[in-house]
Amino acid sequence: MRIASAEVWPKAILKIFTVTLILLSASLAQAPAGSAVKSTSTPGFYDPLPQDTGEAGLKLELRKLQTTGRLMMVVAHPDDEDGGLLTREARGKGIQTLLMTLTRGEGGQNETGSTFSDQLGILRTLELLAADRYYGVEQRFSRVADFGYSKTADETFQKWGGHDVPLADIVRVIREFRPDVLIARFSGTERDGHGHHQASSMLTQEAFRAAADPNRFPEQIKEGLQAWQPKKLYIGNVCGFGATTCADANYTVQLTTSEVDPVLGMSYVQFAIEGLKHQTSQGLGDISIPSGPRYAFYKLVDSVVPNTKDEKGHEKDLFDGIDTGLSGLGGGNPHWLTTELQKISDDIAEAKTREPLAAVEPLLDSFSRLNSSVAKITNSGLKGREKALIDLLNVKQSEANHALDLALGISAEAVTTTSGTVSPREEVKFNLRFRNGSPHDLRISHGGPLPALDLGVDSPHIPIRSGADYSTKTSFVVPDLRRMYTRPYWHRNDPGKDSINSIDDPYFATLPFPQYQLRETVGYSLVHHAMPQMPSSWREPWPEILLPLFAEVPLENGMKRKQQVAIVPPFSIAVEPGEQVTPVADRKGTTVKVGVTANIAGAPNSMLRLDLPSTWHSEPSKLEVNLPSRGNRKDFEFNVIPANLEQGRAAIRAILDANGKEYSEGYTLVTRDDLGSFYYFQPAVQHVSVVDVKTPKDLKVGYIMGAGDDIPTVLKQIGMDVTLIPADKLASESLSQYGTIVLGVRAYETHKEIVANNKKLLDFVSDGGTLIVQNNNSTGDFNSGHFTPYDADLSRARVSVEEAPVTILAPDDPVFHYPNEISQKDFDGWVQERGLYFMDKWDDHFKPLLSCHDPGEPDQKGGMIQAKYGKGTYIYTGYAFFRQLPAGVPGAIRLFVNLVSAGHQR
Question: CA 353 to CA 369: how far, in whole Å?
């Protein structure tokens, strides 16, 4: 086993090359139909798309080889991307394409479950990477976080610490990736709507010139990056999204995305939609596009190349005026390089005209020439232009390598026979399997000196005859290196308030996830084809396959699912619940449950304890933990008795003392059948919000979940009697046993059963009950459904500034007095936003209770309205209690308790 130095290549080159190879390696785990290594796994994320295998995959790879064009698009959130355009450029033209998404969408809502905040950010990163497989692009991110909806760019920049934090990250990616064409997806104007959208375009336009100025962010230059000037800058949203026509003055290029690509078997936009469907947490699982022509309109707003516009101000292509031919790289370089690049271009052109097996020879020649060219330039001494040139040639070399894999029909995989997770100092056994599906005899060698963790040692050259298989069993010991953990390299100390991520390991900055992972390298050569002699300082010039180490995880149906093996700490410590709301009046204490999971065999006897506030204590003070086998999990309970409770915040940390080390964090696998996998790490901490709140006596509350929230948990923690009513049981449930029914967020659009039984809910109100309806996002469906007892129109009005002043419109209403006295102080400390999807019209039977507004906007009075209906009370609220209660915001908790108690005052 070997860990090669990160100094093998400069960091910027290594990042781009590593990302490219990692993306390729997923598609190399299986070969074209008929020649793949046999597997019992079900097809999934780690298997290549059909279009990336066999002859189709070869054709797509040859498109990449014939061009040096680079394109970079910048957007604000996952799902903002113009997938049709990205697919057209990356798949259709072979352009090396990068998508930079500033945030990970962690501030959004989740339509698929109760995963929120930073864990949702990991899920959406995985969803976006699944979509990127279809687009054919590389992916990057910045440090800034999605803090929820923002109406203006000014508020966005304020939350993001000004321009320079996200701008520095965009400039960094430009300097590393070196695009020819830079695209801002949005226009940078109010037309974009969301403040994050506006800001992303404004930053991209500023970065176009800033990246070329070595005096901007000079710390990057000191790291070894070089200033880079993209050649052209375009902005989008100039004609409206989905537009099929556009005024000549508004755009420069009109690109057809509805053109059918014979290799993909569908149009670019249709192929992109297949990728976009993986973003199901955004509600895009069932997205479709109408038939007919589809276009991407973009406007050129800056350029350093001669004008290529026609008399109408239009161009034919984004790369008009830019030489993207491989042979063009030789300009200004020694004559030998120009000659060599022309020969490589000729080889690629010849390969495109041949059947896959006949393309092997010209591809081998181009691979060899690329390898020798890189070695010759490297040995001559790296300078500014040469670094950029080597970067491009390395990418072309990896593309030629992949094209060879496809032309030969070879495949390989590395599969562990142990577990999907491993820990430091643990021995891991795995099987390496290689299939030679070509008519050529091959020689292979596994374990190579790449800048990564290789699993084996260098092997001798092993002959593999045509059509033969090779298999070997080997093992390695996981090194005890914290950087190797399969964990995010970023974090927020307080996700409810922090809008910028702290970067724990700058080496991985802007990447989707850390790229160190367990993988094996298999090099191969054709027996009859002599490879050129290389300088001894350079790695052996064999084509290679990089194989991430997989585990085959059993499924309930008897099949197995591939999962990349992750490196995790020996123990995972989880505190339940992670958030605890405790009333000031509580003197009995609470139960803290701590789950401990061992990821190693023969875990030693250990001791578990709690780190508590100084005046608190636990019973018992510590517990012995004995977990003899891998995967063993035990739950331990402590009774925590607080003292001198005052409203405020406190923290309880669980610590496991094992083998001389302390462990105090847990990790959770984030995955889905259609996605890859990664681990979410969080401290083993319970955040305690001590709240001065009174609750009603003998009030039974029924809660019907919508899209998912933690409000019921908080209500139970403060002592309320809450029962969860499944939506599919609503028709048969006896509602008379409840005093109040609460509908979770987006309930009507999430559960058809609630729509079907709305009359039953209104009858419950008429008979004397209280119904609380929280925000619903589908305003058209809500209004057409006539779900309210009297006429009321739901709108998309919202108040995004969480500090926006709130006015109590009905100060004498009991809702502000029972069981808690509500004052202006109860609107302090709210997080992310005041509310969303307020009513804008309502019948006179309704009474508005609160008003607030964003800066410079009129008052919004429809965020909380109340009506008496029959004997009962109906309340609609768009205020974002689903964010406030889990965050332990005292005033929001007190007010929500009052809402639930409305109509039940004594």
Answer: 20
Contacts of 807 (CB under 8 A, 6+ apart): 850, 851, 852, 859
| Conformational region of residue 631, where left means phi above 0, alpha means psi within -120 to 50, and beta covers everything else | left
pLDDT (tens digit, 9 = 90+) per residue, 248-292?
A: 999 999 999 999 999 999 999 999 999 999 999 998 999 998 889
566: nearest Cα among 453, 422, 455, 456:
422
CA distance 808 to 156: 28
pTM, two decimal places: 0.88
Average confidence score pLDDT of the chain: 89
Give CA angle at 135 (133, 139), nearest 5°: 70
Rounded-to-integer distance, Cα 236 and Cα 201, Å: 9
593 alpha carbon, distance to own chain's centre: 30
What are residue 519's DSSP bridge partners?
A: 454, 548
Cα radius of gyration rounded to whole Å, the chain: 30
Residue 131's Cβ-count burial label (10 Å; 0-12, 13-18, 19+) is buried
The angle subtended at Cα 139 by Cα 137 and Cα 141, nearest 5°, is 155
Q: Are 487 and 131 in contact (CB under 8 A)?
A: no
Tokens describing residue 723: 């029962």
Q: Are 608 and 743 in contact (CB under 8 A)?
A: no
276's CB contacts (< 8 A; 6+ apart) are: 79, 83, 131, 134, 284, 287
Q: Give the number of other Cβ atoms within 10 Å of residue 365's Cβ.
A: 19
Closest CA to 496 of 77, 116, 891: 116
Residues 150, 159: contact at Cβ < 8 Å?
yes
Which one, of 690, 576, 590, lies nearest residue 635 by Cα? 576
Q: What angle do CA 617, 619, 620 make, to 5 degrees?
A: 120
Among candidates 441, 430, 397, 435, which has minimal Cα distance to 544?
A: 397
Nearest CA-CA partner of 281 in 120, 104, 513, 496: 120
- Parallel/antiparallel/unpaired status of strands 579-583 and 622-625: unpaired
Residue 844 Rama label (left phi>0; alpha psi -120 to 50; beta): alpha
Cα(71)–Cα(390) distance, integer angstroms = 18
What average pLDDT does range 335-362 have in this prediction?
92
Give the domains, in start order, of the chain with CATH numbers. Answer: 4-8+11-32+409-568 (no CATH), 69-323 (3.40.50.10320), 569-690 (2.60.40.10), 694-901 (3.40.50.880)
CA distance 141 to 100: 6
Residue 779 main-chain phi, psi, to 5 deg: -65, -40
* Alpha carbon distances (Å) from 320 to 21, 96, 257, 492: 29, 16, 18, 43
pLDDT class for 110, splitting at 50, 70, 90? confident
Q: Determine how many CB atoms are found less than 10 A away from the CB of residue 700.
A: 12
Q: Which 3 state secondary structure label does DSSP give 495?
A: coil
Q: Which residues pair with 109 in a beta bridge?
A: none
What count of other Cβ atoms lies within 10 Å of the Cβ of residue 553?
16
> What confidence category does residue 25 fall into, taking pLDDT thresholds of 50, 70 and 90?
very low
Nearby residues of 603 by Cβ (< 8 Å), 6 or more positions away:
570, 571, 626, 627, 628, 632, 658
Q: In angstroms, rounded to a whole number, what is the distance separating the alpha carbons of residues 260 and 269? A: 9
